[in-house]
Design a protein that fits this description.
The complex is a heterodimer of chains A (344) and B (332). Chain A is 73% helix and 3% strand. Chain A has 344 residues and is mainly alpha-helical. Chain A has a single domain, classed as ABC transporter involved in vitamin B12 uptake, BtuC, CATH 1.10.3470.10. In chain A, strands 1-2 form a two-stranded antiparallel ribbon. The radius of gyration of chain A is 20 Å and the shape is globular. Chain B is an all-alpha fold and 332 residues long. Chain B has one domain: ABC transporter involved in vitamin B12 uptake, BtuC, CATH 1.10.3470.10. Classes of the chains: A mainly alpha (344), B mainly alpha (332). Chains A and B meet through α6 and α14 of A and α5, α6 and α13 of B.
Chain lengths: 344, 332
Amino acid sequence: MTMSIRLCKQKISFQVTKIAAIYTTCLLLALIAVFMFSLISGSYQLSLVDSFFSLIQQQQWITDSQATLIIWEFRLPRSLVAIFSGALFALSGTLLQSLTRNPLADPSLVGISQGAALAVVTLTILFPDYIDDWREISAFIGAIAVAGIIQLLRGKGNSLKFILLGVGVAAFISALISTLLTYGKLQSAMSALSWLAGSTNTSNWHDVNALGSACIVLMLLAISQARTMIVISLGDEVAVGLGVNLRKTMLLQLATSVAAAAIATAIVGPLGFIGLLAPHLARKITHNGPANHLLLSTLVGAILVLSADIIGRTLFAPTQLAAGLVTSLVGAPLFAYLLIKKQF
Amino acid sequence: MKRQQWLGATGISLMCLLLIVALVIHLSIGTKVISISDILHSFYTYNEDNFDHLIIQELRLPRAMIAICVGACLAVAGALMQGVTRNPLSDPSLLGMMTGGALAVVYWSTFVTNASLIWLPVVAAVGALISASIVWNIAARTHGGITPLSLILSGAAFTAFSGALLAIHHLLDEQTFEEMRTWLVGSLLASNIETLYWCIPWIVVGLIGAIVLAPSVTALSMGEEIATGLGINIRRRKWQLLMCIVILTSAAIALAGPLGFIGLVIPHVVRFIVGADYRWIIPYSILLGAVYLLSIDSLARWLIQPQEIATGLITILMGAPLFIWLVKVKVR
């Protein structure tokens, strides 16, 4: 049983199969469950009832007077930031993998995250006064510059070259970042360092708004590209033969992917391996058309980052581990597993 | 043949000359510039009351010695690795050996109280060996077998993993972070001469092993079939060479922390000069590696006086572009 959705004179169209719809609903429910768990867990214990009622702002049912403050000021923005950034990283990874036709592409592996990181760290260290206003824009410029450099260096090479070049560029940029951290003022270096570990500690509603709107816009943009993605996966020649404007489409998808990674990186810092794992896990759940795959991947990404955040703040409480450390610890072995299992 | 040997010998003596020049420059520059005659005097007529002599003998000479040893070790380890794996992109740091060794050293110095320096190279060696075998195993199990791509990707995954472990360790234990911070980016600043004494035997064993095994590396670099045809026991030779690589790498880690990309850069430059014969590549790598790290260290001390940049950062900044270029040219 399938359902077709056609919009804008069939420019945007995709099919939703029954099985995909069921899985999407399941993942959505799982995300909500993890989200509720994220609200109640932490150094201050809240009951599920209290957090639920403070979430829907029904003051008369709440037994704990602190609940509303804690939920609305700390845990809700933090959880939402985790969800949206996970979705954005997953979106970026999915597009990048489809674009390079390489299942190992990931924004942090090919230097895009590092480009954003370099820009933000430079700004934090050299011009600390401007950091709050210019963070997102500088991250975006840094990421796009690195993506452009890799694309230029690669020339006509294959996707293997893209990844190897990315590893080299990432090493180079990491050294630059370390240099800046070592020789900047101690205070700005420390703030840059906590951001670099990939943490959701300092999230506020401004971050939530930025990430949320970016998430919606980029998601729509990506889904509008879904139909060409499936054609491109058949090979460049086939795609051109079927009437795809390859240059334009590739550029648009790359820009979407870079934008997603850049905005997420600007706010939570470089989270490793999410962009790599989410698409693979989504594909493990069910194999389906690109639009469904995008949707499932973003949901998986959101669940992954939110869970990493919960693990990070409860495992060694009261010491908080940054979510980025947890994703690297879990992601690297899974990446190795994928290396062994998949053909590339 | 005669002519070739003569040329090679001339090259070696030229390299030695270069090494001496680099050493003198390394000794003379710094916050206080010391003239060449003073340097010579500090060797021949050492005077304890002369401040310049003290600086040379107590501070700069040990550092220069460490730079020479580490440069030589890493260059040779890289050359052996590239020969054995027939992979132009091999380097101890790319295969996760550096971070693995560093991780072992950090854990060891935290959990073993009043740790003695004697065991530092051994601990680093164990860490490097374990991480190398993990990376190697992951790469070998991929579909294409061991290729530059699979090795580098599994190395990258391992590096990310151990990097996260290190970061967690720092978070939970701030004191070791303070002590280890400079060491972990690869710096010759924190090194002291005592570690060098404990590492010298290892370095000598590793370098002699490399020179002795050099002819079979040449054979191995032509392919396993050819090497077997030339009467080489491949399994045993590879095992011996791996031990050499691990010993050299871990001595370098114990002395200077993880210094990236030296093992990648030097063998390529050397091969450009002398061709593919490892009997020449190994000695040239020893000398050129020493010269390279001495010059890099001089640069690190000179660039932003009176502070200094960590040497490991400069080696990466110099090495990564070469890596990118190699990928561009060698990978099809």
